[in-house]
Design a protein that fits this description.
elongated, about 25% helix, 3 domains, four-stranded antiparallel beta sheet, single chain, 23 strands, alpha+beta, OB fold (Dihydrolipoamide Acetyltransferase, E2P), conserved putative lor/sdh protein from methanococcus maripaludis s2 fold
């Protein structure tokens, strides 16, 4: 008896799939209809947006162009007289190498000068001899002139004395010129820097025998550099010397723009590219910028002051119209606007808005005219 009761407890009720389906249907029909949330009508929906107001700014159209930095002056220092190179060093003994800074008039090299010193001495001696001869001829002229007046000398003798004096004077002038030439040649054995700059190349070594014209060093001006770019000729009328602003960002120093103004407009356009080359100067007193570096120049053109601007993304751009949503009494109003120039993330509003208009700057893409909006208080 106990065994049968135990077996009865182990028996589980069995249901068919059809019975289970009927039970589920009964449960579903028992759920009240009012428990489902009805959709909100579009006319009653409230859109969360962020708003702002137009601003007054000085605005300019910008154009970016890539160019390079160039030295305004590169000078080759060459031998002007023949001679052996003795030294290639500054006055203080600093060896002249690539990168050595130099000042205008500073000695940078010397040539062997013994021959030129000897030529100088010979020229000076010749000058003294010519001056002595001239002194004699002047005395002879004075005597001939006196005798002629007394009637003791003929006119021919007087004229001969005058000619001798003139030839002696010419010889002195020639001797003086030879002294000057000898002095110049002697001075040319001392090579000096023609301008401030740095030595960008050294072409010879001490001991070399240099002919006239042999390059010794190249000096490059670096305290001021030129930045050159080409812009379309269509922008030519908007360029103004010393007024058009340029922000120059050197590739080696990103995020550190240098402010400058246009300093030169080349007088001839390039017909093949339909561009005109422009230039500005970049101060470089510490030499941090190098000739040959690449840079990007941002030109500010067509500058306009006190213009009304809004964020560029606040404008809805359709094929034939531009819209900005204004907020009036919690309602979004689509407003046609006429745009002017754009600069970075803002755009000029020529018509359609007033300074005190409240405009939608975030969330406007999903709006329609007349819908209800409220301000996003989370930002």
């Amino acid at each position: 008896m106990k065994t049968r009761m135990h077996e009865d407890r182990l028996v589980r009720p069995r249901y068919t799939w059809g019975q289970l389906f009927l039970v589920l249907m009964a449960l579903a029909t028992a759920i009240p209809v009012g428990a489902q949330t009805p959709p909100v009508p579009a006319a009653e929906r409230v859109y969360v947006v962020r708003t702002g107001r137009p601003e007054r700014r000085t605005l300019a159209q910008t154009i970016k162009k890539t160019g390079g930095l160039f030295s305004p002056a590169v000078v080759e220092v060459s031998a002007k007289v023949t001679g052996r190179l003795l030294t290639l060093e500054l006055e203080d003994g600093t060896r002249v190498e690539e990168g050595t800074p130099v000042k205008r008039g500073e000695r940078i090299a010397t040539l062997e000068s013994r021959d030129y010193v000897a030529q100088m001495h010979a020229a000076e001696a010749a000058l003294k001899s010519a001056e002595a001869t001239l002194a004699d001829k002047r005395r002879e002229w004075d005597r001939a002139e006196m005798l002629f007046k007394e009637g003791s000398a003929t006119e021919q003798e007087r004229d001969r004395a005058l000619a001798d004096r003139e030839r002696a004077a010419a010889a002195v002038e020639q001797a003086q010129a030879q002294v000057e030439i000898a002095q110049i040649n002697l001075d040319e054995t001392r090579l000096v820097a023609p301008m401030d700059g740095v030595v960008s190349a050294r072409h010879v070594e001490p001991g070399a025998l240099l002919p006239v014209g042999a390059q010794v060093v190249t000096i490059t001006q670096v305290d001021t550099l030129r930045f050159q770019v080409s812009v379309p000729t269509t922008l030519y009328a908007q360029l103004s010397l010393n007024e058009t602003g340029i922000d120059i960002e050197i590739d080696a120093y990103p995020g550190q723009p240098v402010k400058a103004t246009l300093s030169r407009i080349y007088p001839v356009a390039e017909s093949e590219t339909r561009t005109v080359r422009i230039e500005t100067l970049v101060d470089n007193p510490d030499g941090r910028y190098l000739p040959g570096m690449f840079a990007t120049g941002t030109l500010a053109l067509n500058e306009r002051k006190n213009v009304l601007v809004v964020p560029f993304d606040a404008v809805i751009r359709n094929v034939d119209r531009h819209l900005v949503y204004r907020v009036q009494d919690g309602i979004a109003r689509a407003t046609d606007v006429r745009l002017g120039i754009r600069a970075d993330d803002v755009v000029e509003i020529v018509e359609g808005l007033a300074d005190d208009d409240e405009i939608i700057i975030v969330g406007q893409q999903r709006l329609a005219d007349g819908v209800r909006v409220r301000l996003d208080t989370q930002h």
